[in-house]
Design goal:
6 strands, about 140 residues, globular, 6-stranded mixed sheet
Length: about 140
């Protein structure tokens, strides 16, 4: 994805969703974020993505990943079906019915795509990041 698309997505996240943007900012330097946008909770890509992430919750935890689900008018954090949806009237969806984005510890958008992402692909991207390599080195000590 080119720089302009990253910049537009980042600005979108920070401006158009004030409540959620505040939530995002509190995670900087603490958590990586997976942000799943969908206009329909029955969307097959959305369902496939949630199922894929749920299969490897240990890997998400190890990499300090939190998952945000963003749906028009509401959002939630977590993978559990019982997780509470929060209202947010400011949610404006992107031009596609499904999108997944990865936000790094530094708050930068590292990946954004309109197809589901496997945990293998996700972990490969994260594990190549300098901060993740440092985390793994410190864990060995």
């Amino acid at each position: 994805m080119d720089f302009m698309k990253f910049l537009i997505l980042y600005i979108y996240l920070l401006i158009s969703m004030n409540t959620i943007a505040q939530d995002f900012s509190k995670h900087k330097w603490e958590n990586r974020l997976i942000i799943i946008f969908t206009e329909n909770l029955d969307n097959s890509f959305y369902q496939k993505q949630v199922k894929e992430l749920t299969k490897n919750e240990d890997g998400l935890l190890e990499r300090k990943i939190l998952v945000y689900h963003i749906f028009p008018g509401k959002y939630k954090i977590g993978l559990m079906t019982k997780d509470k949806w929060e209202k947010n009237a400011k949610n404006k969806m992107s031009d596609v019915p499904f999108e997944i984005s990865l936000v790094g510890l530094d708050g930068g958008v590292k990946l954004s795509q309109s197809q589901p992402l496997t945990t293998k692909e996700l972990f490969s991207i994260i594990d190549k990041m300098p901060m993740r390599r440092d985390e793994r080195e410190r864990k060995k000590e």
